Amino acid sequence: MSTYNIYLSPPHMTGQEQKYINLAFSTNWVAPLGPNVEAFECALENYAGVKKALAVSSGTAAIHLALRLLNVGRGDVVFCSTLTFVASANPILYQGATPVFIDSEPESWNMSPLALERALREAARKGRLPKAVIIVNLYGQSAKMDELLSICQQYDVPVIEDAAESLGSEYKGKKSGSFGMFGVYSFNGNKIITTSGGGALISNDEAAIEKARFLSTQARDPALYYQHHTVGYNYRMSNILAGIGRAQLEVLDERVAARRAIFARYVQALQHIDGVSFMPELPDSRSNRWLTVLTIEEEKVGVNPLAIIRALAEQKIEARCVWKPLHLQPLFRGAMYYPHEEDVSVSENLFANGLCLPSGSAMTAEEQNKVITAFLQKLQVRSC
Ligand SMILES: *Cc1c(COP(=O)(O)O)cnc(C)c1O
Predict the structure, then answer these.
(1) Fewer CB within 10 Å, N- or C-terminus of the chain?
(2) Would residue 320 be called left, alpha or beta, if left means φ above 0 and alpha means ψ between -120 and 50 degrees?
(3) 191 is an active site residue
(4) From the first residue on, what is the mean pLDDT of each consecutive set of 10 residues in the chain (384 residues)?
(5) Selection from 283, 289, 195, 279 nearest residue 245 by Cα
């Protein structure tokens, strides 16, 4: 018995996955390495337009590896977008480092160049520049990479691009995830394509990816016996799961088109409502629209996102709040936070007013109509 009939973002299989899974079985490559892993990494490199990709067990593991490669350790500071899933910042804690959270700006909902600049200026003045900046591309929308990268370059701080939600998106004609020194993808079950669980670390720095490969396989020294000089992890992706990934990656562009069409249908059905606004798309960028997200002005529509989520749940439809900003999380109590402007916290407003609607690429028009009808019922407005 499932709680929902219509999920927020369920897996969408092609049917071709089985072909690659069978290949793993028939060759007995039932291991965290093998031909599917190699082929999947190669396909990812081609898709993202980068030199090297490393398939790993999760997006979180990929972020952790990136921090290790940048020598982040105890006492270091790492800047991170505040409006994101906790996985963006958990690896900062794994390394014993201190996160500092940066607000969003209203045009992409991603890291505010104004807030980042203020934070870096202050950090430089104190002689405590961060070892890395983790920039998240929320719900498929790329951050303002040109502005953010140029600020980071000024202070010579490397960027990790958390593109867990933006695989398939573009910014100025380049694939999202390929802008930072390192890019991170996730293939968790709810992402635009999935391996059930998995992730990837990508970079144009081949030596760095080789080092990540070493760290992700228990940091085993090249000797005939087992020797280790540094702490490692068991972070590699299984050859069976990489088989799922190969088939999924083949249809990524179709999945992006489907999610964008779902977004367009929601816009068409709901944009006439005064007090409802959809997540914007930056000019010169193309979001994969992983989730359709909108904001609701309670004074105008009479209900808040939580009331809508509850009403939809009664009809077995799964909707969610926008991520609760990390600087508001009990886990990160006391962490420093730089808002967009001294007295304007964009992320807090988005959290208070934001709503994510079911956006799975396999959702039928009929299912989407059910969501739209339930939404309009709760708002007590007529569709037109
Ligand atoms: C899903 C997600 C991750 C983590 O990916 P996993 O593969 O689940 O570990 C990291 N960052 C963001 C923004 C995500 O949405």
Answers:
(1) N
(2) beta
(3) yes
(4) 89 97 95 95 98 98 98 98 98 98 98 98 98 98 98 98 98 98 98 98 98 97 93 97 98 98 98 96 97 96 95 97 98 98 96 98 98 93 54
(5) 195
The reported pLDDT for the residue numbered 381 is 63
| Three-state SS at 229 | coil
- pLDDT of 159 reads 98
Q: Does the pTM of the predicted model rise above 0.90?
A: yes
| Of 176, 135, 136, 175, residue with least CA distance to 158 | 135
* Alpha-helical regions (H) of 17-107: 17-26, 35-48, 59-69, 90-94
Rounded CA gap, 120 and 325, in Å?
20
CA distance 16 to 23: 11
CA distance 228 to 236: 17
- Please work out, in degrees rounded to the nearest 5, the angle formed at the alpha carbon of residue 188 by the alpha carbons of 186 and 190: 115
DSSP state at residue 132: E
Distance CA 279, CA 264 (A): 12
Exposed/middle/buried for residue 184 (C-beta within 10 Å: 0-12, 13-18, 19+): buried
CA distances from 157 to 51, 122, 124, 350 (A): 21, 14, 11, 28
| Token couple for 297 | 């002005």
Query: How many whole angstroms separate alpha carbon 19 and alpha carbon 42?
Result: 18
Calpha distance 255→268 (Å, rounded): 20
Residue nearest to atom 14 of ligand 1 (CA): 164
Enumerate domains of the chain plus CATH numbers.
Answer: 17-251 (3.40.640.10), 253-379 (3.90.1150.10)
Active-site residue, from 144, 175, 191, 378: 191
Rounded alpha-carbon distances, angstroms, from residue 313 to 2, 358, 360: 12, 11, 16
CA 376 / ligand 1 centre spacing (Å): 31
* CB-based contact 315:374 (threshold 8 Å): yes
Q: Which residues line ligand 1 (CB under 6 A)?
A: 58-60, 84-85, 87-88, 136, 162, 164-165, 186, 188, 199
